Amino acid sequence: MSLGDLIANKVIEKFNNLTVKNGKPIIRSNGVEEWTVLASIVIIDGDEIEPITLTTGVKSLPDEFRQFSNGTLVQDCHAEILSIRLFNYFLLKEFSNSNSKIVVDGKFRDDLKLALFVSEPPCGDASMNYVLSNMKDSTIWQVKESTVGINRGRDNFGQLGLVRTKPGRSDSLIALSKSCSDKLCVKQVMGINSAITSELYEPIFIDYLVIKNLDQVDFDRCFNRLRGNNFKLLTYNNDDYKFNKADGKAPAIKCLIHLIPTNETQILNNGVKNGSVIKDKNLKFKSFLCNKLMMEQLKQVKQVNHTTYLEFKQSNKSRQELKKQCREILQNWICTSYDNFNI
């Protein structure tokens, strides 16, 4: 059995056996089935394959929500980005865990391999031909002039290799969060560390992308845009995941995040814990994946000598310069608004 199949079988089995209330896609009261994307960060330790995260999601918050977020909202709730965030949360917890299997003397073991499993091709450039092949009307979408300087979702469908925002209805509020294809492309160079875990670890890289329906040509075009493609594409044949996108289905509203080693689970809706009100003054709505709580986790293991989150992020000059170089090469990378808060 191929490595891709071994990884997919482990992830899908873990997900199918996960019992959570209100976390998985449902059949709505009007009879419409929901679909969602499943993602997982998987550690490969020799012959052992261990899924660490299980996440689902296809939503992204409008950029204007950042003005009242103050670090409390999870803006990008696409499954693969949630899995990377959740793995960063795991890295924070493992840093001070004397019994950790993956962190030794404060360093992530360099003999481990990481795979990112995704049940659908990442939104953006990597998935354009896949989406086109599944359209009943294969006519290329019309070229339209961008109003914000980049392509929103699938605008200018026939143009490949472009930076794009997350897909969304053309009449919806703008979400400047970049496509998963673009974000993963940058993480090839910078690692999957967040600004927060970069304070503790050297860059940690994904070795394999495990995706069922992605052509090697599209994979190479998308992920060779920056210097060197250190991802390897693995495909699989498992059909046991039952919530894939299909005609007549609607995108799931809720997102599931589950950290397997610690059995922690949260259901998110609009970037906060399900059932919460975003502007709840008691701040009980925050997910443990929001920047504010992640910073609190960092402060438990390392002193932070900055007064605001933005000041903290910008203090890592080498990381900021590398990010700038990546964005200049990809071109037309319009930054999101700042989500700043006092530390």
From TrEMBL:
Protein's UniProt name: A to I editase domain-containing protein
A to I editase domain sequence ranges: 53-218
One MF term in the entry's GO annotations: RNA binding
Protein's GO biological process: tRNA wobble adenosine to inosine editing
PROSITE patterns in UniProt: A_DEAMIN_EDITASE (PS50141)
PANTHER family: TRNA-SPECIFIC ADENOSINE DEAMINASE 1
Pfam families the record matches: A_deamin (PF02137)
Organismal lineage: Eukaryota, Fungi, Dikarya, Ascomycota, Saccharomycotina
Domain of life: Eukaryota
Record InterPro entries: A_deamin, Tad1
